Transposase (Salmonella typhimurium), 137 residues
Amino acid sequence: ALRELGRIERTLFILDWLQSVELRRRVHAGLNKGEARNALARAVFFNRLGEIRDRSFEQQRYRASGLNLVTAAIVLWNTVYLERAAHALRGNGHAVDDSLLQYLSPLGWEHINLTGDYLWRSSAKIGAGKFRPLRPL
C-alpha cells in the first residue's frame, strides 16, 4: 500500500514538473546549490584525493565533521563579507537591487588560499568584532 502511495505521489510530482516552469526553475536552483556545496567540500578536502582512509568509524566521523566545520566556516565568512560588500556599495551611492541578492551564493572559494603558505603575523591581528577592509571597486 505504501509503495502504491509513493507511486501516486511521484506521478503527481512529474505532472506538476511538466506543467510548471517555476517548479523546474526552483528545483534546478536547489540542485545547483547542492552541487556548489559539494564542489566546495571537494576543494577543501583535496588531500588524499577526497578519500577518507581512516580505519575506525569514529576517526572517519571526526574527519567528516572537520570537513563540515571548515566548509561551514567558509560559508559564514563569505556570508558576512557579502553582506558588508552590499552595505558598502549602498553607502557609496550604488544601487543594489534587493531582489538580486537572493541569487548570491556564499559557496565560492576562489578567493581563499586552500593550498600554499600561510603567514600569521602578530602585527596583522584584527581586534574582536572588527573586519578586514573590503577591496576597492
